[in-house]
Amino acid sequence: MVQYRKLGRSGLKVSEISLGSWLTYGGYVEKQRAMETIRLAYELGVNFFDTANTYMRGEAEKIVGEALRHYPRSSYAVATKVWGVMGDGPNDRGLSRKHIREQCEASLKRLNLDYIDLYYCHSFDPTTPMEETLRAMDDLVRQGKVLYVGVSNWTAAQMVEAVNIADRNLLNRIVASQPPYNMFHRGIEQDVIPVGEKYGIGQVVYSPLAQGVLTGKYKRADDAPEQSRATDERGRQVIRRYLTETNVERVGKLKEIADELNLTLSQLALAWVLRQPNVSSAIIGASRPEQVEENVKASGVTIPQEALERIEQILR
Hints:
CATH topology: TIM Barrel
CATH class: Alpha Beta
CATH superfamily: NADP-dependent oxidoreductase domain
Helix content: 25-40%
Strand content: 5-15%
Oligomer: single chain
Order of helices and strands: EEEHEHEHEHEHEHEHHHEHH
């Protein structure tokens, strides 16, 4: 059964496994299958759904909203984002007050919701004063259009600055950070997680399965299965960093540990990410209902210390 954790220092409880929609809904996956995947995730206990305005230029938000409209609004949380390019004009991107306000309204309309549970700054915007961005987000919270504020792909130093600005100006603090994190990409262990622990910022991590490499479906670095993300142009660019011969060899050794623990490789990789108390949720990008069914079983799994030590040796 899916278990739940607090989102940072907030009182919001989110499922340890959440469902994302980046390379899946609104384009890569046929709409009906996307809807079925979202509905199954909900029925299995997933209450946290992640999307963004830029995912297929709003189409992903529409699918997420349509799939969830059959359920009580109090039973799920939706996260979406602002920052990316949404038009040709000079103000159709970034974290200015204008763009944030306009994109929040547009996202609410596409999602068909009255409020967004978690609204992320999708990336850092060096062209806009951080205080302007945080005040605009705080205004949305005070208006009831957003409940919680988060950041995505911000450095630890940027997160600390955001906390300090919020405290100085009596603004709502950020409670969530969305970085990449998996067995092959561990940079946040150095500083982002310590900052999150200190200031009550929960990590909602993406790519916990290294874009599918940690599922074991790639047998060689140059042999991507048909219909996989590695054969899709958008997915190919992202997966390149993970799909190496070294990592494929590591996956083979990790599979042995997963078998010993009676877990699938995906479940082992997700449970490994969730071993971090500061990780509030791990976002999966399931394109088929059966993938959700397998992945949610990682929730609540505790990897024995001896196995964790062996995993560490493999990853080194």
